[in-house]
């Protein structure tokens, strides 16, 4: 099932699926993303996003900074749906921080466009993991690559206000392996 998810709506759907006890059928219905294996063996998570007026300029195109916002939003949705236990521990002494992020823009995205946000995780090395984001504008005739971005995440331990490199939990490594990530050099808990 694909729709324009919100964090609150997704959390409710995931909680509903988890608490009603009907298992896989309801979990599938609550899932807000699609999966697709690419020719290079990586598995893409695909989220569908409909552009709202609040994400655009007065002319109608999406502010470039919104695509960076979407990286964070869809990274969190990936976490909620694929590594939920780990995500619920964040904010204590274990955390995942964005080490770097970037985005290249190729085509404008406009109000009411449907955008397919595709995420892959090619690798996990030491305390770092790479997330690649591709933004496709869905049209009546196909898809147009609008932008491509990247984030590097870092697993960290927090002591007060100081962060130091930390190992990745097994749940994170299992989820990224399922997506085709090379985890052979990951720092393991």
From TrEMBL:
It comes from the Bacteria. Gene3D superfamilies: Hotdog Thioesterase (3.10.129.10). SUPFAM superfamilies: Thioesterase/thiol ester dehydrase-isomerase. This is Acyl-CoA thioesterase FadM.
């Amino acid at each position: 099932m694909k729709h324009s998810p919100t964090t609150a709506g997704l959390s409710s759907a995931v909680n509903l699926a988890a608490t009603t006890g009907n298992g896989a059928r309801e979990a599938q219905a609550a899932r807000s993303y699609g999966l697709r294996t690419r020719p290079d063996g990586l598995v893409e998570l695909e989220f569908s996003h409909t552009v709202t007026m609040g994400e655009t300029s007065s002319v109608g195109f999406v502010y470039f900074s919104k695509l960076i916002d979407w990286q964070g939003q869809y990274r969190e949705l990936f976490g909620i749906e694929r590594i939920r236990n780990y995500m619920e521990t964040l904010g204590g002494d274990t955390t995942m921080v964005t080490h770097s992020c970037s985005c290249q823009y190729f085509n404008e995205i406009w109000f009411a466009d449907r955008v397919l946000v595709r995420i892959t995780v090619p690798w996990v090395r030491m305390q770092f993991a790479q997330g690649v984001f591709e933004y496709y504008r869905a049209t009546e005739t196909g898809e147009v690559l609008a932008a491509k971005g990247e984030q590097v995440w870092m697993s960290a331990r927090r002591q007060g206000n100081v962060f130091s490199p930390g190992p990745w939990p097994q749940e994170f490594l299992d989820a990224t392996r399922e997506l085709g990530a090379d985890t052979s050099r990951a720092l393991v808990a």
